[in-house]
């Protein structure tokens, strides 16, 4: 019986710390489409400021470019990125300046192709043997979403 009480207290303590941390770190804001959520962390201030000055400011928000366009993929990516961003920020082991992961680079590339489908199809069709890795929107248009 004492072990169950200790287990219950430990679970309650861990849950309480988790809920407090989620609230204190504004974790709920990451479920929204508000670009300010991306600027909760000082590491993202440069990207947020760059987005405000970019050509996409009036037509795209962070989620439009950095999450898949299906609901499951979007929230899986938000949860995964949120967890790892929190982990690396809390432990201080993030690279500065912040760098995009390969998975997130692919998501961003797919988002460019999603919104600009007609244009991209004509470009890739005109390049003999073109492939996803060979013709990259974000390699040539690096400053479109965030001014660098």
Describe the structure.
The chain is mainly α. The protein folds into two domains: 1-31; 41-140, Multiheme cytochrome fold (Orthogonal Bundle), CATH 1.10.3820.10. The protein contains seven helices and no strands. Helix 5 (102-115) crosses helix 6 (117-125). The mean pLDDT is 85.
What is the secondary structure topology, with strand pairs?
Blueprint: H1 2-24, H2 45-53, H3 62-66, H4 71-91, H5 102-115, H6 117-125, H7 137-140
Helix pairs in contact: 5-6
How would you name the CATH homologous superfamily of the largest domain?
Di-heme elbow motif domain
Number of strands: 0
Shape: elongated
Strand portion, in percent? under 5%
- SSE series: HHHHHHH
Gap between N and C termini:
61 Å
Approximate helicity band: 55-70%
Total of helices = 7
* CATH architectural name of the largest domain: Orthogonal Bundle
Mean pLDDT: 85
Q: How would a crystallographer describe the biggest sheet?
A: none
CATH topology-level name of the largest domain? Multiheme cytochrome fold
pLDDT below 50 for ≥5 consecutive residues: which ranges? Answer: none
Task: Record keyword descriptors for this entry.
about 150 residues; mainly alpha; Multiheme cytochrome fold; 2 domains; 7 helices; about 55% helix
Brief sketch in words of this structure:
By secondary structure, the protein is mainly α.
């Amino acid at each position: 019986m004492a072990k169950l009480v200790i287990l219950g207290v430990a679970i309650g303590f861990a849950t309480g710390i988790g809920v407090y941390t989620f609230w204190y770190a504004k974790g709920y804001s990451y479920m929204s489409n508000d670009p300010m959520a991306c600027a909760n962390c000082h590491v993202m201030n440069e990207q947020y400021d760059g987005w405000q000055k970019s050509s996409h400011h009036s037509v795209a928000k962070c989620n439009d470019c950095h999450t898949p366009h299906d609901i499951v993929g979007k929230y899986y990516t938000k949860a995964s990125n949120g967890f790892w961003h929190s982990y690396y920020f809390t432990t201080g082991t993030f690279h500065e300046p912040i760098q995009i992961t390969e998975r997130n680079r692919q998501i961003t590339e797919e988002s460019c192709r999603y919104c600009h489908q007609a244009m991209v199809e004509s470009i890739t069709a005109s390049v003999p043997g073109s492939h996803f890795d060979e013709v990259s929107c974000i390699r040539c248009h690096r400053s479109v979403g965030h001014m660098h």
